[in-house]
User: What shape does this take?
Amino acid sequence: MSDLILKVSVFLSKLTSKIAALIVIVISLFLGVLGVKQLVSSVLAIMNSKEVSGSFEYGVVYGGIIAGPILLYVAYRFLRYAFKALKV
Assistant: This one.
């Protein structure tokens, strides 16, 4: 009976880690898209020497230059850990 409980707990642990890894993959893809969007919109705003529609201060435009690569790096790290958990 103890062996059966151990097998069930190991199975549930692996299942939970795979579900969590899939959720992290979705979140990291969202962060990656958001980082690219911020970086591209900030670069285009600086090249055009005007603000992007929707941004109300220069800090928003120049903040995308900093926040974009940070979000991309976080998304990359999340993807690495998620694929390690999935063992792909």
In short: The chain has a mean pLDDT of 85. The chain has one domain: 2-86. DSSP finds two helices and no strands in the chain.
